[in-house]
Every structure is written in C-alpha cells, then in structure tokens.
Design a protein that fits this description.
By secondary structure, the protein is an all-beta fold. The chain has one domain: Sandwich (HSP40/DNAj peptide-binding domain), CATH 2.60.260.40. The chain has strands at about 5-10, 15, 30, 35-40, 45-50. The chain is globular and about 35 Å long.
Length: about 60
C-alpha cells in the first residue's frame, strides 16, 4: 500500500475530490481550523499549510 499523497496548500480550507475524475470520490471541503494539517477521510490525502501560511479563518 502506498503512503498517502502529501499536498502543500496556502489556505486552511481545501477541496478534495480524490483526483482521477470519475474514479475519485465526492468533493469535500476540509477545514483545518487552527491546525496546520488535515487528512481527507475518503482518500487519505494529507494537506498541510506551507511555511508562512496562516492557520485559522481563510483570508
């Protein structure tokens, strides 16, 4: 089994659809809140804020 994909992002709210078009999963919006990372409950992708990006409410 491959480790989950790690994706660096600039905002604490991300949209994940699993990629691969119809082979993905339903689109979900993931909110990190005050954390710096979050995992998608469907596909396990790991989203993390880039260095210098602000956690909390999107700007």
């Amino acid at each position: 089994m491959q480790p989950p994909e790690r994706i660096e992002v600039d905002e604490p709210v991300v949209r994940c659809d699993g990629g691969n078009g119809a082979l993905g999963h339903p689109a979900v919006y993931l909110n990190m809140g005050d954390k710096r990372a979050i995992d998608c409950p469907y596909c396990g992708r790991h989203y993390y804020l880039r260095a210098g990006a602000r956690a909390g409410a999107p700007h």
